[in-house]
Amino acid sequence: MTRERWAQIRQIFDAALERPPQVRAAYLRTVCARDDELRREVENLLESHDTSTDFLSTPAAQLGQALFARGDSFRGDDADDYAKGYRVGSYEFERRIGRGGMGSVWLASRFDHEFKKQVAIKLVRRGTDSEEILRRFRIERQLLAGLDHPNIARLIDGGSTPDGLPFLVMEYVQGTRIDHYCESRKLPISDRLHLFRAVCSAVQYAHQNLVVHRDIKTGNILVTPEGVPKLLDFGIAKLLPGDSSNVDLSQTRPGLRPMTLDYASPEQVRGEPITTATDVYSLGVLLYKLLTGKMPYGVEGRSQTALWHAITEKEPLKPSTVVLVDGKTAAPDATQKLEALSETRDSARKRLRKKLAGDLDSIILKALRKEAHHRYVSAEQFSEDIKRYLDGRPVIARIDTPGYRLVKSFERNGEGIAAAFVIGAALISIAAVSQHYANLAERAESAVERSLGETRHQLVAAYSRAGQVQQSFDVASAAYAANSGDPQVRRDLGLAANSLGDQLLAAGNRAAARERYTAALTHLDAVAQINSGDLTVQRGVLGAANELGALQLEAGDLLAALSSYSRALRAAETILAAEGTQAGAATREAVAQANRHVGEVLIRNGAPEAGAAKLRKALEIYEQLSLGDRAAELRSQLLK
Amino acid sequence: MEDSGEVTRLLGEIGKGRKEAINDLLPLVYDELHRLARGYFRRERGEHTLQPTALVHEAYIRLVDQRAPLESRGHFLALAATQMRRILLDYARKHHAARRGGEGQKVLLEDTMAICQQQPVDMILLDVALDKLAALDQDQAHLVELRFFGGLSVEETAEVMGTSPATVKRSWSSARAFLHREISGGSVDARTMGANPANF
């Protein structure tokens, strides 16, 4: 078929598609009067079009995910899964109550008991027991074992199935999703706030135990018929630094970043370190949803990109504004409730707006601040502020607003205006004083942070001198978690990661080594961009990029290897240029070696000419350095 | 982020007409996408992760300075979609090779029960069919890369290709019909040349 022919076919095909199916045949007969072949082609294409409505309609990556997540043993069905009556330990399976790509959750009961006790058993699905998934599973078990709180679904037991797959036995929570619970019972705002505070207490408890949940959302909170909310699913939770357990934190890298975008914080979206402030943010989204029935950025149904941008850039709509925006889902509770009192929908919404405006707006927006340090410092403080609101006391979310306390005292006490003015004036000056102390505190805090940073820097260096590579890396990671913006911190971490990579590689742990080298490059590159004259950093880049390139090559990842070796080459050339006439043989040899690596990969990658040029470059240097063996090797390579 | 300066600079050069900059850019984009895709493919549960459509967007956000001109965004997304095609094809090939030597084995990007309703797609056949389409109409093949491999919406595709959404929709219909026919062996060419996966 020629391009012209295809253009012709397309044109007729497009025109035919715009016509109703029943007249298409007639249309084709007319247009293709003297060209039966053309008509057949278009008919053929139309038929293909009609039988392929969903062909390519799902983006490739989504399809690919299914394939790669499952591995080969999973094709088409889930027949391999467990069945009713299956027994493991002293539990007997009843029915499946949930499933996902990773595994399933079964309702089960203990069969050795006189009274039936129901539990939920979470299992890894056969065939998906990859190292990563098993590792997550172990982490979840380890985390949950340390948590015992009335608002967290409890871990009862754990073990392995006869075929060696791990499982968790959890408290079975028979409940309703928290948002559905609120809506179906048309709970008033104050009840919703009480429920929410219970969730805060669970999160606070987890934080005190150094666990960040990272996936707080309506779907993970069930409310029991007794009205007790339970936080579930610590499947992607993470331990905070400071814990002495053997969970490898650094493996919970931002690269994998599993999360629910709707509830994700700016730092989560950007792949930055996760702290308890991340959960505070998600709690903010949760409260927003519970009180307004909507999501903060008004981007429901819009593209993921829009949501990305909104989370990192846009200010959320004020809850009190959003309930007025659109009648469909706004304010389920108050609207319906007040409608029952035969008020109009509009005035119901206005009532809700009035309730949200002011304190609740401020409280929610404080939790949703982009900068983590402007949010509530803890879930507890968030919860306390809601309590203050419920008690009619001033909330800290608004404490800086001039005149706010004055208004608050009016509301609460209904004092005379004159008296209020006097008090008001006094309060404003108190506010000014407390602002002064807040500033002082902030300055002291940053001084402490600075000296802490310096201490960590010294520690990293000391460990590294003592050859304690892992410790050096751990301290550097902690420093980075506390202050990711400081180039010195990134320099320390990059160099430490590089050394750790070397150690891991020497021990034969290639996957972990690769991960460290990748991290080392990321950090060192960032530093090199600020100061390209720091030769220690350049040497770090050279070393890490070389090792990484070799590992990638070994894994058959040619393009990645090319990119790494090119980085190594750039670093080697930078060092050479900086050393100038002082450059020693080692530096020049490194440049030659880097050229050679790039050249070899280029050749394997189908760019023989560019590759040969690099090899010649390397050859030239080897000859200058009188490295006869190397030069001979290269010459024979070039002959091929 | 890490390569933000570099990638943004290279995109600027391409914008200025220095097409060779693509050679420096490709490995950087490939790397980042590969990393993101791996993370995505290894995800564990549907609700816990980004949408696949976000992969190229995420790469964009991570690699390109957000103050870069709009034109750069188009260049980047187009490039990224092409790289996604390579990544997925590489995966499929590797997988193919891993399975019993590969003779006659189809490599399917298969849907699973809950994830989507779509028919399985043979990646390697699709790749061949797409090359065929490119020979007939480069723009249409590019469009398929953007929509299917890049996960871009109709509107975004139109923006990148500098055309209208209506044109994209029309062009998409015939491209899909063509590819579907190629893959299911409906065309004269495919029958005579034997579009048999065992050949690849």
Pick out its properties.
heterodimer; A: alpha+beta; Phosphorylase Kinase, domain 1; Transferase(Phosphotransferase), domain 1; 5 domains; six-stranded antiparallel sheet; three-stranded antiparallel sheet; 25 helices; 59% helix; 8% strand; B: 200 residues; mainly alpha; two-stranded antiparallel sheet; 9 helices; 2 strands; 66% helix; globular
Describe the secondary-structure layout.
The complex is a heterodimer of chains A (640) and B (200).
Chain A: H1 3-17, H2 21-31, H3 36-50, H4 60-70, E1 87-88, E2 91-99, E3 103-110, E4 118-124, H5 131-145, E5 155-160, E6 166-171, E7 176-177, H6 178-184, H7 189-208, E8 211-212, E9 221-223, E10 229-231, E11 238-239, H8 266-269, H9 276-292, H10 304-313, H11 319-325, H12 332-340, H13 345-356, H14 359-367, H15 379-390, H16 404-413, H17 417-465, H18 469-482, H19 487-506, H20 510-530, H21 535-554, H22 558-579, H23 585-604, H24 608-624, H25 628-639
Antiparallel strand pairs in A: 1-2, 2-3, 3-4, 4-6, 5-6, 7-9, 8-11, 9-10
Chain B: H1 4-15, H2 21-41, H3 54-63, H4 70-98, E1 108-109, E2 121-122, H5 123-136, H6 138-149, H7 154-161, H8 165-183, H9 188-193
Antiparallel strand pairs in B: 1-2
Helix pairs in contact in B: 1-2, 1-4, 2-3, 2-4, 3-4, 4-6, 5-6, 5-8, 6-8, 7-8
The share of residues in helices of chain A is 55-70%
Mean pLDDT of chain B: 69
Low-confidence stretches of chain B: 43-52, 99-119, 187-200
| CATH-assigned fold name of the largest domain in chain A | Transferase(Phosphotransferase), domain 1
Largest interface: A-B, 79 and 79 residues
| Binned strand content of chain A | 5-15%
Q: Report the average pLDDT across residues of chain A.
A: 78
Count of discrete alpha- or pi-helical segments spanning 4 or more residues of chain B: 9
Number of extended strands of chain B: 2
Distance between the termini of chain B: 38 Å
* Corresponding CATH superfamily of the largest domain in chain A: Transferase(Phosphotransferase) domain 1
Coarse shape of chain A: globular
Oligomer: heterodimer
The level 1 CATH classification of the largest domain in chain A is Mainly Alpha
Biggest sheet features of chain B = 2 strands, antiparallel
Shape of chain B: globular
The radius of gyration of chain A is 32 Å
Q: What about the largest sheet of chain A?
A: 6 strands, antiparallel
What spatial order of strands do you see in the largest sheet of chain A?
A: 1-2-3-4-6-5
